[in-house]
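ARCHIVE CARD
CATEGORY: sequence design from structure
SOURCE FIELD: tokenized fold
FIELD CONTENT:
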């Protein structure tokens, strides 16, 4: 993963464990809302969940990952992911969400390969959310809208 994806994208602030990220000295602290208010909580050991949530990244690195998708798998004029692979990654596999009762512009969502897919006002929307104790992320894009 590091050699084939992170290094070519210059994602230098993306790590696979809390321990590895913590060695940088630039790791945010996790917080949760509790009855007494918002409190700092201990880091969850993310090594046990591996591919389902073990990556820790910065907003700058996440934007490099997103940019790769918006550029159809090409970085610095070098193809990193083929169009066929991207098409497969975005292909719906199973229904994962109901229609939004109060948001008719969204269709039901589908699980793809590492992504979720749904239609937003007639445009394909690719997204993925991440939640780990004290942290939340949400990455989304509308392929074809950049043209």
């Amino acid at each position: 993963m590091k050699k084939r994806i992170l290094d070519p994208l210059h994602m230098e602030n993306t790590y696979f464990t809390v321990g590895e990220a913590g060695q940088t000295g630039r790791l945010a602290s996790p917080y949760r809302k509790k009855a007494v208010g918002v409190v700092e909580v201990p880091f969850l050991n993310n090594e046990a969940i591996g591919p389902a949530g073990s990556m820790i990244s910065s907003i700058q690195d996440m934007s490099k990952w997103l940019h790769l998708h918006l550029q159809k798998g090409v970085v610095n004029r070098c193809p990193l992911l083929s169009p066929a692979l991207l098409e497969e990654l975005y292909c719906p596999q199973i229904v994962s969400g109901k229609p939004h009762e109060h948001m008719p512009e969204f269709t039901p969502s589908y699980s793809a390969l590492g992504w979720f897919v749904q239609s937003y006002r007639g445009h394909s929307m690719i997204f993925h959310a991440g939640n780990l104790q004290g942290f939340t992320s949400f990455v989304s894009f509308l392929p074809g809208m950049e043209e």
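CARD ANNOTATION: Helices lie at 2-6, 18-22, 59-70, 83-90. DSSP finds four helices and nine strands in the chain.
SHELF: design records, drawer C
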